Amino acid sequence: MGNNKRAVVLSSGGVDSTTAMAIARQEGYEIYSLSFRYGQRHALELEAAQRVAKTLGAKQHLVIDIDLAKIGGSALTDNIDVPKSRSGQDMQKQIPLTYVPARNTIFLSCALAWAEVLGASDIFTGVNAIDYSGYPDCRPEYIEAFQHMAKLATKAGVEGNTQITIRTPLINMTKAQIIQKGVELGIDYRITHSCYDPSPEGKACGQCDSCLLRKKGFTEAGIPDPTTYVGQ
Fold first, then answer.
1. pLDDT, tens digit, for every residue of 192-210?
2. What are 49-77's pLDDT values in tens digits?
3. 169, part of any domain
4. Which of 2, 36, 37, 193 has its CA 20 to 30 A from that of 12?
5. Domain span at residue 47?
6. Alpha carbon 131 to chain centroid distance?
7. What is the side-by-side strand order in the sheet with 122-124?
């Protein structure tokens, strides 16, 4: 496809997906950014995803509505308090209340459908299995299983016209390494949003798992955290 190789990039507007998008851009892909309005309490992330798509020169930014709040079962979509001030050990110990049932399977399935329509060869996702909250759908074995399914489930896979590859460039990186990589690629992380439970003014709570991992990442990377937290 020459210089017109295309990639669908799942984007939450956060550190990881934004860095994954920057990597795709660096590799010469035409970017098709995909986000979801899924009933999440932190819908502010969609504004960040829009900023990221614009800043990184995405060809298109598509937002799909899937109301997972009707299913519930997660602190992000249901009337359940977002856990605060958990230790890193606690995050690794059990699957947290912020886990959204089958979310990555749903999102990757939509990305797979769009990639087929676009003739895109790659889907980039910022999943990470090092500094993360213990989600089962961020592990390498899950991605491998989805990749296998993608070959069986798509016209592109069966006919062999386009082999759609699930790309996870950050899966074995720490949050600090991800941030360092992004800064190398020119990302200004002020455009991103990570908090699961932002204030009405849009400030990050500073205490949810996502905020704590973000703070830890910037500290370990030796890079100032540009986030505005509650109380600042």
1. 999 999 998 889 999 999 9
2. 999 999 999 999 999 999 999 999 999 99
3. yes
4. 2
5. 2-221
6. 13
7. 60-65, 30-37, 6-10, 122-124, 165-167
Cβ-contact 33, 49 below 8 angstroms: yes
Of 136, 117, 124, nearest to 52 by C-alpha is 124
Domain at 137, CATH number: 3.40.50.620
- Residue pair 42/65 in contact by the 8 Å Cβ criterion: no
- Sign of the CA dihedral with 126 first, then 127, 129, and 131 last: positive
Identify whether the C-beta of residue 58 lies closer than 8 Å to the C-beta of residue 33: yes
pLDDT at 133 over 90: no
DSSP bridge pairs for 36: 64
Cα 100 from Cα 222, distance rounded (Å)? 31
Assign 157 a pLDDT band (cuts: 50, 70, 90): confident
| pTM for the whole structure | 0.94
Q: In 23-62, which positions are buried (b, 16+ CB within 10 angstroms) versus exposed (e)?
A: bbbeeebbbbbbbbebbbbbebbbebbbbbbebbebeebb
Give the chain's domain count: 1
Q: Report d(CA 115, CA 125) in Å as an integer.
A: 13
The mean pLDDT value of the chain amounts to 92
Q: Give percent above pLDDT 90 in the chain.
A: 74
Tell whether 168 is covered by a domain: yes
